Input
Amino acid sequence: MSLGHWALLFAAGLLAGINNSVSSGGSFFTYPALLLTGLSPLSAATTTLAALTPGNLAAVPEFWPEVQAQRHRYPREMSVVFAGGLVGIGLLFATGADIFADLVPWLILAATGFFAISPWVRRWAERSAPSLTDGWAGVALVFAFSVYLTYFGSGVGNIMLAMFTIRGFGDFLSANAAKNVAMTIGTVMAAIAYTLAGYIAWLPAIPIVIGSAIGAHFGSRIARSIPLGALRIFIICFGLFVAAWQFVR
Output
């Protein structure tokens, strides 16, 4: 891997870390960067999941008081995440590299759409939480997004945040804590399974891990100087660009 590739992946990781510290969608930067280094769509997607795992894991202790306050909810909700994650991993093994490559443009479009509608979903969730907190519809949605998390994962963070608001985790910090735990469970499962399957390119993952750690550390400070609306528009436009690029490849 050339020095230029390392610089590209470090920059993508830096942007991902900054973005994930205030929102979601960091993989919109790392996935295309990995493709540009010559990885296949399957390897790029699984490497992205593995490379962003340390950032998810590092966020959990920061929200431990919120986790403790809602600890009675975690066994049920995270068992659903675990089950959905297993299905997502099995689905990726079943579809294989060729079918996965054909699905990638549509998955990126879906991820961009999830990201775009997440503020409205979250507001709706806050209004509707009392009726959906213990309903099976909420369980089914958490399961479905957990399948998506380990199958591809891009853009799912904001929707997970909305879902845990629906499931009655209450305030933003408590729902965000649950999202961080769920993302950690999913990405750790994916990293282990896809490493054993030989899908993950660990050498290109290193500069992403370093860049995302730095970006996550300084992201909240940088975010204060960037209008959130402008950041969201940029990420949505970039996601549409990446999807279009994948359609014409």
